Amino acid sequence: MKVGSILKKITYSSVFLAGIPAILVMLFLPPLGTKYRLQVEPVDKIYSGSFYVDLNSDTISEIVRSGKGVPYFHILVMDNDMRVYDQWNLQDSIDLDMSDFFFGNFDHDRYKEIYIFTYKDDSLFLNINEFFDPEGIKSDHIYITKISVVNKKITSIVWPAGFFDTNSDGKDELFFSIQTGFGLEPRRLYSYDIVHKELKSSQLTGVICQWPKMYDSDGDGRPEIFGLMGASGNYKTWVPFSDWSTWLMVFDDNLRFKFQPVEFPGLTNLLEINSYTNGGFKGYVVSHNTGSADTTVFKPRIMFYSLKGKKIRERLFSDLGLNTFTHMVVLKSRNTDRIYLLGTELLELNDQLVVINKVKSPFNSYFSYYILDIDFDGEDELLLYSVSEEKLVVYNAALQKIVETKLKGTDQIFRFSHYSSKNYENKIFLNAGGGYGYFLKLKKNNYYYLGYLAYPGIYLLFFVFIILIKRINTLQVVQKESLNRRLVTLQLQGIKSQLDPHFTFNTLNSIASLIYLEDRELAYDYMNKFTQLLRGLINDADRIYRSLGEELEFVTTYLELEKLRFGDKFNYEIIIGENVSQREQVPKLVLHTFAENAIKHGIMSRTEGGILKIRAEKDKDYLILSIEDNGIGRERAEGQSTSTGKGLRLTGEFYDILNQINKKPIRHFIIDLHNEKEDSVGTRVEVWVPVED
Q1: Residue 294: its pLDDT value, please?
Q2: Residue 46 lies in a domain
Q3: Strand-pair category, 610-619 with 570-576
Q4: Among 326, 344, 361, which residue terminates a domain?
Q5: In a domain, 303, yes or no
Q6: Which element (helix H / strand E) includes 357?
Q7: CATH number of the domain that 664 lies in?
Q8: Secondary structure in 3-state letters for 291-308
């Protein structure tokens, strides 16, 4: 056997054909299950201000919780078994919507401090407690600044930024920003020197800096400060850097601008600013969103800026297929920073702002995002949560979904903290607000690789499917051949039925009569048309369709023969519509069969004045052919005719078989015509032939 024949046999075998789609599915379909499983343990009773943190570096976390007693607000510190170490009473009020408590280690010893901002009337105070260090700092009621109060409601929010030793005394300063709505003061960045009790602030600006971040963007060992900059438009008096625009601002650790702020005009603009490092490039990646109806403002986009505030490149969100509010996230991975845009799709961009990875959003509603090392491997993961869908989804840095789970939460900001037990078990504690709390533990799925056993099953399914397809295809081929044979048989039967013996005999008698009367020219003309008719039948014996022009030519020849036989006993008229092309394909003998039937059974029973009208018209995707006579009608003709109607039965069966092949059916109707007295005045046959536009 030749090599080519062997290869052909292998290629067309079911075993080989099933392997191709099965391999493609195996490549693109993830295994049944995931490598990780998120263990979610609901906590029965959660206080709004509850955190887990290791305050004394013993690898076991303590519980820190705020509350309201009589008359003081307080902070409790407890062990894992809910036993109280001590209670810190505060003389001022706590509002966790204004400021959460947070933790730091400004003196770099083994003990962390608890920080919380409190207020009294319109004054803001800082409180610090190095809880487990007997000689550690404990400072209450440190005055910071005046804050905004509207209708006895605090409208200022304090955002912690981080710690850094600006004056090189070995102790860090605390950095934070204050956001104020419906008032100008305070809208600043601050640093507080805990040792020397000195407060510094940036210059007054109209804009608001939310979620401030401290990061060494230029690699000089000192951090830059930046965040989410908003244009709220709620302070109309002129101040530097009005909040009727938003501004790209980056501060150094002395709270001075690193470069002249860049303006983005328009109300409700938001700028998300992140540092970005990739290879030799260091700078900032900035996303711009707007909720304004003002069409003159900048369209939402993502941009790169240098360390000196010079724009390097930009790209519109709409060019990336993002047309709704879009979050920007930068993950600091070991190798390089990675940029993500989170909207209707989750996109990863490179430093040329080209999409290099894309997945569909797991939500059909608004969602919030968090960056957290949920599996404690030193690499941050991306957590997305939708309140309306009550769904939490975790992605790794490659935008691969790690896990998805259902849990209830609120639309407030989630609070995550690290829980470590005395048994050295590590979990994430999620305070989801509204009394909802959970312990989250990402565990490896030991049964993950068993999912691959499903792939041989996928191959077997394709194998069985292809065998079935082959069987079905074989049956269809056999059925089609059977139809073709029936069509050929009907063609031959149709040809025989058209030139019935009576017609042929009468035609030959007419020719003989003309020869006897020595009208040789007329006899020759008759014989020539008869021969032309026979030639047309024989030449088209193997055709099912022919053009409308060819069909009209054939039926005209036939009608001329009948005119020579019967003289002026009948006349005919052929009408072609203006939008009808004679190149349209119609079934062979579609006109002749019904024209012959009209003359034989309708018109010839009249004494004189017979008229046969043939029309061709176009109606959308159908060609309408009508054959109308003014004969005696079908009812009277049935009583006088000895015909078996075999020709019409063959025509009907012919169309039925064609309709099994055609996309649209051929339809034909026989309509009896009557006058006002309900007397029969003829018959009209309509044949609707589908045509392609």
Answers
A1: 66
A2: no
A3: parallel
A4: 361
A5: yes
A6: strand 355-360
A7: 3.30.565.10
A8: CCCCCCCCCCEEEEEECC
Q: How many CB atoms lie within 10 A of CB 303?
A: 20
How many CB atoms are closer than 10 A to CB 263? 15
Cis peptide before 134 (omega within 30 of 0): no
List beta partners, residue 358. 347
Which position has the token pair 């830059």? 224
pLDDT given at position 440: 92
Buried b (16+ CB within 10 A) or exposed e, 489-512: ebbeebeebbbeeebeeebeebbe
The identity of residue 620, as a single letter, is K
Ramachandran area for residue 128 (φ above 0: left; ψ -120 to 50: alpha; else beta): beta
For β-strands 138-146 and 123-129, DSSP reports them as antiparallel
In this structure, are 356 and 479 located in the same domain?
A: no
pLDDT of residue 443: 80
What SS3 state is found at 546?
strand
Q: Is 439 inside any structural domain?
A: no
Q: Are residues 192 and 341 in the same domain?
A: yes
d(CA 606, CA 200): 118
Please answer whether residues 374 and 396 qualify as being in contact, where contact means their C-beta atoms are separated by less than 8 angstroms. no
Q: Categorise residue 252: left if φ over 0, alpha if ψ from -120 to 50, beta otherwise.
A: beta
First to last CA, the chain: 50
Q: What is the pLDDT of residue 500?
A: 45
Give the H or E element holding residue 680.
Answer: strand 680-690
Q: What is the pLDDT of residue 155?
A: 87
The CA–CA distances, whole Å, from 444 to 310, 384, 544 equal: 46, 20, 68
The answer to whether residues 676 and 536 belong to one domain is yes
The one-letter amino acid code at 539 reads N
Q: Which of 314, 330, 361 is the last residue of a domain?
A: 361
Q: For residue 118, what are the β-bridge partners?
A: 125
Q: Which domain holds residue 512?
A: 475-690
- State whether 356 and 495 are in the same domain: no
* Number of structural domains the chain divides into: 2
Phi-psi region of 678 (alpha: psi -120 to 50; beta: other; left: phi over 0): left
Number of H helices, E strands in the chain: 9, 41
Is residue 18, in this structure, part of any structural domain at all?
A: no
**What is the mean pLDDT for each group of 10 consecutive residues in the chain (693 residues)?**
67 71 68 72 76 93 88 90 91 89 94 95 95 93 91 88 96 94 83 96 88 94 94 77 90 96 87 91 92 72 96 93 89 84 93 93 92 89 94 92 90 88 89 88 71 69 80 80 66 50 56 64 76 72 80 87 80 91 86 84 82 91 91 74 62 73 83 84 91 74
Do 487 and 339 belong to one domain? no
If asked whether residues 351 and 480 sit together in one domain, one would say no
| Per-residue tokens: 61 | 């976390």
Backbone angles phi, psi at 250, to 5 degrees: -130, 130
- DSSP states along 574-640: EEE-TT--TTSEEETTTTHHHHHHHHHHTGGGSSS-EEEEEEEEEETTEEEEEEEE-SS-HHHHHHH
What is the maximal distance between C-alpha atoms in the chain?
146
CB burial readout 359-389, b (16+ within 10 A) else e: eebbbeeebbbbebebbeeeebbbbbbbbee
Q: What is the crossing angle of helices 454-498 and 14-28, to 10°?
A: 130
